């Protein structure tokens, strides 16, 4: 496949600091250069994409071949040369990410080390939490014009290289999300040995995915789905051929298109739809999985966005950690659902969260954390006592365990670990390097945990009675002290006693003793 590039020289010459994103995908390696507009949105200045058969190697051989590894390295080096020509630091890529299927390769660490040594670049692997966040972004940013997204229930189905994810939106809010071990490339390699072609190949694919289809039917049997949105690299590559000038296509049209595509060779698919070889190989499984899901859910129409999948992914990688507003609301809603499952006191968690928010905002110059950290603090506040479901004794440790072994919408694995540790440290001892999960963190993340836990402990001390007594909070800084005044609270004796045992971490981290104003008026 020839290199795909979209470049606006004038934009590159802008004095604004460019943002760069690199994605090692299932079938290609892509890079985007973008600049932030005055209103905070991103302008794409350059986009490059080259094929590399990563998924084929992983699902066929269980490891990434040396030839593929060296091809990926060569592509990245060429991209770095392009960045250098634009005056951009080639080793300071804003986000460098690999598809989550790389973690299934037996030699994933060797591949990452080869890239690190050859290109001077640390590449992270997208985990399930971030992938869900990216699917959410694609949906909210591009598909909210659908009537079903604002009213009724819409299922968003993402057929990836190794897994299929489903997000159920009810009146614009996420109410459920599920994942299935059924992907376009995984399925392609699984049925390859059948040597089937044409309609016979479609039958083999359908038989192979029957178990996952039955699970989808079961998972959504209790809800009426008004609309289906399908996204993914392969399906979006041929979307314009399916939908034409319409926002959706019928199930019948998808069925007929899939049948016609099955009668074409990979070479003919490449020529007719301007695909690369890796995409052509995975196209039939992607089409059949989407068609099977449409028929399983008994839907007459399916919406397929015609936007470029890979460009959208790179764009969203650059903004996914900046999300606030509706996204933050979805994260907090997911946390509250988890708290309710473990019968945690909702009033206490919510009030501790509001106190955390006030402290976080007032002390911004002191902690120097960002909006994403503020969101993690809110989640930790909501969940810090879920461990009492197991036992009130040592419930902070039980809270850590429950959170570490739970999913919270929109949070990646590192986020979950940070939240779990902050919740653990809301009482008793603070962070210690002999605590396994804490010890495994990078230094910068340990510092984040310390700062967030210090704030949570102060907020929790103010809500010691679980009666929401502290309604107002006034902060004043004095040399070596953070003085708290609690207007409207006549007797703060309980809160003072709690603060004496919980403010130690705050003083250790920020160098300020926390005291409650004796006059408190």
Written overview of the protein:
The structure is a single chain. The protein has helices spanning 9-12, 54-61, 66-85, 108-119, 128-142, 147-150, 184-191, 198-208, 210-219, 233-237, 239-243, 251-262, 266-273, 277-296, 309-319, 326-341, 346-362, 364-367, 371-383, 395-404, 413-424, 436-439, 443-462, 493-502, 504-510; strands at 4-5, 19-24, 28-36, 42-51, 95-98, 124-125, 153-159, 164-170, 173-180, 227-231, 248-250, 301-303, 474-478, 481-485, 513-516. With 521 residues, the protein is of the alpha/beta class. The chain has 3 domains: 4-125, 2-Layer Sandwich (Nucleotidyltransferase, domain 5), CATH 3.30.420; 128-320, Exopolyphosphatase. Domain 2 (Nucleotidyltransferase, domain 5); 323-516, Hypothetical protein af1432. A hairpin with a 4-residue loop joins strand 7 (153-159) and strand 8 (164-170). Helix 3 runs parallel beside helix 4, helix 12 (251-262) packs antiparallel against helix 14 (277-296) and helix 21 packs across helix 23. The longest helix is centred in the first third of the chain and has 20 residues, at 66-85. The radius of gyration is 26 Å and the shape is globular.
């Amino acid at each position: 496949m020839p290199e795909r590039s979209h470049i606006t020289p004038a934009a590159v010459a802008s004095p604004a600091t460019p943002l760069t994103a690199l994605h090692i995908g299932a079938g290609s390696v892509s890079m985007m250069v973008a600049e932030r507009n005055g209103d905070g949105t991103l302008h794409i200045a350059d986009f490059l994409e080259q094929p590399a058969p990563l998924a084929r190697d992983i699902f066929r051989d269980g490891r990434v071949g040396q030839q593929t590894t060296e091809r990926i390295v060569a592509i990245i080096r060429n991209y770095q040369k392009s960045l250098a020509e634009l005056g951009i630091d080639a080793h300071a890529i804003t986000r460098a990410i690999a598809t989550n299927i790389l973690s299934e390769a037996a030699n994933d660490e060797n591949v990452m080390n080869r890239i690190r040594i050859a290109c001077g670049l640390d590449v992270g692997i997208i985990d399930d939490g971030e992938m869900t966040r990216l699917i959410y972004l694609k949906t909210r940013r591009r598909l909210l014009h659908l009537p079903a997204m604002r009213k009724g229930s819409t299922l968003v189905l993402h057929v990836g290289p190794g897994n299929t994810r489903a997000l159920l939106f009810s009146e614009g809010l996420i109410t459920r999300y599920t994942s299935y071990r059924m992907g376009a490339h995984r399925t392609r390699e699984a049925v390859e040995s059948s040597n089937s072609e044409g309609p016979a190949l479609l039958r083999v694919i359908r038989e192979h995915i029957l178990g996952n289809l039955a699970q989808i039917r079961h998972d959504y049997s209790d809800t009426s789905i008004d609309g289906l949105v399908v996204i993914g690299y392969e399906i979006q590559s041929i979307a314009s051929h399916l939908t034409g000038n319409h926002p959706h296509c019928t199930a019948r049209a998808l069925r007929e298109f899939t049948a016609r595509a099955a009668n074409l060779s990979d070479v003919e698919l490449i020529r007719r739809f301007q695909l690369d070889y890796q995409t052509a190989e995975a196209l039939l499984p992607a089409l059949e999985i989407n068609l099977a899901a449409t028929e399983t859910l008994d839907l007459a129409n399916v919406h397929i966005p015609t936007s470029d999948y890979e460009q959208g992914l790179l764009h969203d990688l650059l903004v996914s950690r900046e999300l606030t507003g509706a996204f933050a609301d979805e994260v907090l809603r997911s946390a509250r659902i988890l708290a309710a499952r473990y019968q945690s006191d909702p009033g206490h968690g919510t009030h501790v969260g509001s106190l955390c928010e006030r402290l976080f905002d007032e002390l911004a110059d002191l902690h120097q954390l960002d909006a994403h950290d503020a969101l993690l603090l809110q989640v930790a506040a909501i969940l810090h006592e879920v461990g009492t479901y197991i036992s009130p004794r040592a419930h902070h440790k039980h809270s850590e365990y429950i959170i570490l072994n739970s999913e919270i919408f929109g949070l990646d694995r590192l986020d979950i670990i940070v939240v779990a540790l902050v919740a653990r440290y809301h009482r008793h001892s603070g962070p210690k390097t002999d605590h396994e999960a804490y010890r495994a963190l990078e230094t910068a993340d340990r510092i984040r945990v310390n700062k967030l836990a210090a704030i949570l402990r102060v907020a929790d001390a103010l809500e010691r009675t679980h009666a929401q007594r502290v309604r107002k909070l006034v902060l004043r800084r004095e040399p070596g002290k953070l003085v708290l005044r609690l207007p409207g609270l006549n007797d703060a004796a309980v809160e003072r006693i709690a603060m004496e045992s919980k403010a130690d971490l705050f003083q250790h981290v920020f160098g300020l003793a926390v005291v409650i104003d004796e006059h408190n008026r």
